[in-house]
Amino acid sequence: MNHWLHGMFTALVTPFDGEAIDYDALERLIAWQIAQGADGIVIGTVSGETSALTEAERQALLAAARSIAGRHFPVVAAVGSYATADTVAAVVAAERAGASALLLRMPYYSRPTQAGLAAHALAAAQATGLEIVLDNDPDRCGVDIAPETLGQFEGAENIVGILERRGDLTRCDRIARVRDRRFMRLTGAAGTIPSYLLAGGCGAVTSVGNLAPHWLARLESAARSEFYGQAQILQRRLVPLLDLLAAEPDPVLVKLALSMLHPGVDQACRAPLTPACPGLAALLRETIEDLPHPFPKVAAAQAMSLVATRRANGRA
User: How many Å apart are CA 20 and CA 151, to the nearest integer?
Assistant: First the structure.
């Protein structure tokens, strides 16, 4: 039986209006994710420019996302810093703000040992009753969580899986050998989704989900239904967009594309991120239009209708 954390999760951007978070735009974007079939959203990732937010803004953003999405749509909080004590405090605050689960970043800068990584994760797990997915991002942390280290978490029942940012298929298999196959394995590399699911993965957390949640849902459905040829075709159609998005730091081009898909949603990122290279805008529009998806105006109307319904129901 599938766990509720299986599926395609979007690492949601944080929309801004000048220097402030644009909560009206946030409401539209979350409603659109729900209408287009995303399995959940993740608040507080690099795509959400979490490092450029104050702690008060992070908590307000998470609480707002929870309120907008309602009780039953998964809202995962990405938390964690280089200090374990600060991470534990963030875990407690995220649970208080209404997170459905946690995506736990490993300590960065300090390049901890495997024992240090394990102690960090266990301290976070002991501070909450929420389920935790470990965020293995060696490009930022400086070290990998060794698959063998995951065996140390068997007594921590709320550590339920790992997000592999590189989408390494060999590691996917090694993790399954250390832990039983109920221990969830997700990919953070959108280019590996079909192969990662085939290798035993259970889902993905991606920035491109901001732009193509319906497309990713179709891709996952094809892979899970063993229509591998269809899944490969869908994946190949995503490649030009994925390649283009890599031309600027995340989420610069994602936000530019969202401003095209959702008039009124600003493309602005906070410093030190700067606007995209001028020549990329036309190419991005062309690439988006080449990826079939529900017509933006129809999708926007669906999203706003959903927002109105949730408001009428007290966002239950």
Answer: 43
Q: DSSP letter for 108, please.
A: -
User: Based on C-alpha coordinates, what's the Rg of the chain?
Assistant: 19
In which residue are the tokens 């992070």 written? 58
Predicted local distance difference test score (pLDDT) of residue 294 = 52
A 10 A CB-CB count for 162 gives: 23
For the segment 247-255, the average pLDDT, to the nearest whole number, is 97
Overall residue count recorded for the chain in this entry = 316
Q: Cα dihedral sign for 140, 138, 49, 159?
A: negative
Structural domain contains residue 26: yes
SS3 content of the chain, % helix, strand, coil (to 5): 50, 15, 35
Q: What is the pLDDT of residue 302?
A: 60
Task: Give the count of domains, the chain.
Answer: 1
- The fraction of the chain above a pLDDT of 90, given in percent, is 80
C-alpha–C-alpha distance, residues 249 and 131, integer Å: 30
The SS3 call for residue 175 is: helix
Mean pLDDT of 73-93: 96
Domain that holds residue 155: 7-236
CB within 8 Å of 160: residues ≥ 6 apart:
3, 5, 131, 132, 133, 183, 184
- Residue 155 resides in a domain: yes
Place of tokens 């001028």: 278
Does residue 126 lie within any of the structural domains?
yes
Q: Is the Cβ–Cβ distance between 14 and 48 less than 8 Å?
A: yes
Q: What angle do CA 230, 169, 198 make, to 5 degrees?
A: 30
CATH assignment at residue 105: 3.20.20.70
CA distance 219 to 225: 10
On the question of pLDDT at 113 being above 90, the answer is yes
Its pTM stands at 0.92
